[in-house]
């Protein structure tokens, strides 16, 4: 039966307590490819507890447990086969830098349900708050094959936009380890699509694929290290659309553009009345070995 969109949208938020410490942060960083070379001071910021900085995309796994894509499937009105589920996109907004250790409350609910005819798209929003107030908001866009047809709103176009026509400001290649998915899944996403060849075949893939959120984290780290001087606290928002899969062992090509005129001054006060600058980086990611097949599209990092 089609998804019960009204039931999913009308369900009360699901609230859970989450906690994390430096070990969870270090494991996540290793899972997205940090620590190479192991003694590089720039990498030690991600791997050594005495120097640790938290990449904001850690928010997608903080507290462990199933990721937003999987949690969406337990919402009332949603009863679908995991093999038919794809991660369509991810959005993250930071209210404050993510601390190395934390305890917070995460409230998640479906805020949109779109009928694509042959598929459904659900948007799960999670608001995370600690004792000092809001920490971050993230949204997972979940694409479910074969579950449309209830006559609902089609929603925004799901077709990725082409990358900018201009020559990118920077291009960086990142090799994905053969065992990267096996390491990344230890941060909480145990979906067999990323480890079990038989399950991957049933889902229509030639072999297990890398987690989209692993590519998401690797890409943000690349932007931070390349254009933001390694300063993770400058990131304010990050969004992407998953345009294709990555197979462990492939190479990511990360192209970055800083649009002309993207820099602007913050009008708001920051503590002692400082005035900072804000801008954005547009990013496109492709798989080198498959003729630059698109992997991430419509990707933007906003920073201060």
Percent range of helical residues: 10-25%
Distance between the termini: 46 Å
- What is the strand tally? 11
Q: Give the class from helix and strand content and strand pairing.
A: alpha+beta
Amount of beta strand: 25-35%
Radius of gyration: 19 Å
Shape: globular
Q: How confident is the prediction overall: mean pLDDT? A: 90
- Tell me the major beta sheet: 11 strands, antiparallel
Could you name the ranges where pLDDT drops below 50 across 5 or more consecutive residues?
Answer: 264-276
Number of helix segments? 7
Commentary on this structure:
The chain has 304 residues and is of the alpha+beta class. The chain contains 7 helices and 11 strands. Strands 1, 2, 3, 4, 5, 6, 7, 8, 9, 10 and 11 form an 11-stranded antiparallel beta sheet that branches. It starts with a helix and ends with a strand.
Keywords:
7 helices; 11-stranded antiparallel beta sheet; 11 strands; 18% helix; alpha+beta; single chain; 304 residues
Topology:
Layout: H1 5-10, E1 14-20, H2 22-31, H3 41-47, H4 68-72, E2 85-94, E3 102-115, E4 119-130, E5 133-145, E6 170-175, H5 180-184, H6 197-202, H7 212-227, E7 235-242, E8 251-257, E9 264-265, E10 277-287, E11 293-303
Antiparallel strand pairs: 1-3, 2-5, 2-7, 3-4, 4-5, 6-8, 7-11, 8-10, 9-10, 10-11
Describe the structure concisely.
Helix content is 18%, strand content 33%. It has helices at residues 5-10, 22-31, 41-47, 68-72, 180-184, 197-202, 212-227; strands at 14-20, 85-94, 102-115, 119-130, 133-145, 170-175, 235-242, 251-257, 264-265, 277-287, 293-303.
């Amino acid at each position: 039966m089609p998804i019960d969109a009204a039931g999913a949208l009308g369900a009360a938020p699901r609230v859970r307590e989450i906690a994390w410490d430096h070990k969870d942060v270090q494991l996540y960083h290793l899972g997205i490819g940090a620590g190479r070379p192991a003694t590089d001071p720039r990498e030690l910021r991600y791997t050594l507890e005495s120097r640790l900085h938290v990449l904001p995309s850690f928010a997608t796994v903080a507290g462990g447990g199933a990721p937003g894509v999987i949690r969406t499937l337990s919402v009332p009105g949603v009863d679908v086969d995991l093999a038919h589920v794809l991660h369509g996109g991810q959005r993250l907004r930071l209210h404050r830098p993510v601390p190395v250790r934390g305890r917070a409350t995460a409230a998640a609910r479906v805020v949109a349900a779109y009928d694509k005819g042959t598929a459904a798209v659900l948007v799960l929003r999670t608001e995370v708050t600690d004792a000092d107030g809001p920490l971050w908001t993230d949204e997972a866009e979940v694409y479910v094959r074969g579950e449309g047809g209830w006559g609902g709103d089609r929603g925004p176009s799901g077709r990725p936009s082409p990358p900018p026509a201009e020559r990118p400001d920077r291009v960086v290649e990142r090799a994905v380890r053969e065992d990267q998915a096996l390491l990344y899944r230890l941060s909480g996403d145990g979906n067999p699509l990323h480890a079990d060849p038989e399950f991957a075949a049933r889902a229509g893939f030639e072999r297990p694929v890398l987690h989209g959120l692993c590519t998401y984290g690797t890409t943000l780290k690349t932007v931070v290290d390349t254009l933001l001087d390694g300063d993770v606290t400058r990131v304010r928002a990050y969004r992407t659309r998953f345009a294709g899969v990555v197979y462990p062992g492939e190479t990511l090509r990360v192209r970055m553009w800083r649009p002309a005129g993207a820099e602007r001054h913050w009008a708001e006060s920051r503590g002692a009345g400082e005035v900072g600058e804000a801008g954005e980086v547009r990013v496109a990611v492709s798989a080198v070995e498959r003729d630059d097949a698109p992997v991430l599209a419509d990707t933007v990092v906003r920073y201060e």
